[in-house]
Amino acid sequence: MISMINEDIGRLSRLGFSSLPECLLTVPKSFRDYHDPIEVLPLPNTGESHYLALTLTERSTYTRQGKVSDELKGSFRAVLRAADARGERVQINVIGKPAIERWMHPELGTVVNLYGELTTFDGRLSISNPTLVAAEDVGRVVPIYQGRTNQVSAELLTESIGKALPYINEAACLLLEQTLMHEGDFARFTGISDPATLLRTLHAPLSVREGLEAIEVAKTLSVKALVNKVFANRSKPAVKGSLLRIDREQVADLIHRAPFEPTDDQLRAIDEIVADLRSPFPMERILSGDVGTGKSFTFMVPAAASHLAGARVAIIAPSQILVDQLASELSALFFEIAVKKYTSKAKVDISSGIIVGTTAVLSAAKKEGIVFDLVIADEQHKFSVSQRKKLLAPHTNFLEATATAIPRTVALVKLGGMPISILSQAPVERKITSRIITVKAREKLNDFVMDIINRGGQAAFIYPVVNGDANASCHSVEAAYERFRRVLGDSVGMIHGGLSEELKTNTIRLMKENGIKLLVASTVIEVGVTFPNLRVAVAVNAENFGVSQLHQLRGRLARKGGEGYFIMYLTKPIQQPASDRLRLLSTCSDGFRLAEMDAEARGFGNLDIDGDRQSGSARMLFWGITLGRPEIEQGAIDAGLIPAKQ
């Protein structure tokens, strides 16, 4: 029994639950009133389902080969006939062995209670796949729950909630813990005496109206929980050693070294970051800069200033390619500062200088007992929350730089819980055109790419898989590379994560030197890599990429200014959710707005201060509650966290 419960919890964790009692923090999607069944058939084809009491008169089951008389073995369809109180007959069609098995138990001539939609077919009344109401559900209001497609069935969630009801007191305590509320505060806010009463009403209401009212309370409570968590996130104490004695005149000198005119956004962001670093409260700030708005320079100035003030500084990047690029740019800007690259195979002293590395810095710092005073994570969506925390001591200042904020961050930002510096202006003028193209336009696409190359530009084709074995329906990097090489020869380059660092570094160098005209790549190039002459990027089988990936890939274009073309190429028809995602990319080029819209579509993540979840499967408070951005924002406005819109 215990092993079965543990197995269920393992699956329920996909909904954000960590224990059986916690699954009581679920809101039903609807309720069914099984108090008074209808004994006379209602009008058909109304689109409504009804609770009916009918007398079962006939039953036959069918295999795929033919009719089987009243037997379950080998059957895939059952046809039953029933009559209402007036004797009017209706045909009941049941598909699937589990459903058929349930309908084999009632004896002919007995009254059965069922829930379904009455329709007509060939002039006959029929009901397809109705719910056979269990005897224990007759005479009560039954909640209907929603699982997660292909992950957690509604049946498993329903069964687990039934098992959890004896532990309702423990679930009530979990509800208070997750809302950060005292029981008295809960009673005053909801008008309900205690959390256990709310949970009982959700899962065993006396009427449908009572259940629906409980759902509304759960919604308002979910917003209140978010607000409370933000207040907790903002109420951090001063920590000794957090303040960095940065010289503002030195900051101004570092800014003047830029090879371009910094934007007003960059100057304001640098000032906000420096102000945080010069305070006794550990910084936890987001630097949200759309691709091409100069995030790297914006965080490099405070990094250099902190180092010159005696602080230990680490910049963490998601790949060696980006580590090489950041270290090179940092050294070129601030020649007097020692910049050290650290990757998994490096043998580098990380006790001095500015350390630029991959997450390999995590284990190296722990091994050598080094604690950083400032940690900058470039492209935060590439790191887990637990990875980032390994680099942070209580006094450590932390800056997250991102071109597309993750949903957890978006939610915190919208509620005012985490300070944010936004870069929306680009130091250079760029015009990027985004288009969705199907296989029918393949020849026109190839002609367009060749025209760009013949005019001196570079092109990149990006594939979701490296070789065809991973997904037979997708084109792959290696197959495409061979195909392009037969046409363009040595002017074609290839890069993906499976290549050696030496090969990847050489390919990056050739691209920057214009030695490669067409690059065939995986998403290894999506983050931060600068190819000054790249004019067109084609994401092949674009439906297999996420919003963040596509936006980042688009950001590789025209990095030094001018025009660029981002093509989302579809080789086959795609499903609606993917189609909506691509249309979103084609109409919106603002990274932060994309993050907001993506968060609305996917759901906000866990907002706990110590939460590890970033999106999707995490509950905000109740599983089954859907909160839109307007509701969250209004809750934040009511709490005084953010100003009302004018």
UniProtKB/TrEMBL annotation:
Q: Which GO terms describe its molecular function?
A: ATP binding; DNA binding; DNA helicase activity; hydrolase activity
Give the source's domain of life in one word.
Bacteria
Sequence ranges assigned to domain Helicase C-terminal in this UniProt record:
444-605
Q: Which SMART domains match?
A: DEXDc, HELICc
Q: Domain Helicase ATP-binding spans what residues? A: 276-423
Task: Give the record's keywords alphabetically.
Answer: ATP-binding, DNA damage, DNA repair, DNA-binding, Helicase, Hydrolase, Nucleotide-binding, Plasmid
Q: Does the keyword DNA repair apply?
A: yes
**InterPro entries, per the entry:** DEAD/DEAH_box_helicase_dom, Helicase_ATP-bd, Helicase_C-like, P-loop_NTPase, RecG/Mfd
Where do the coiled-coil regions begin and end? Answer: none
Alphabetical GO biological process terms: DNA repair
Pfam families in the cross-refs: DEAD (PF00270), Helicase_C (PF00271)
Q: Does the keyword DNA-binding apply?
A: yes
Q: Which SUPFAM superfamilies match?
A: P-loop containing nucleoside triphosphate hydrolases (SSF52540)
Protein name in the entry: Helicase domain-containing protein
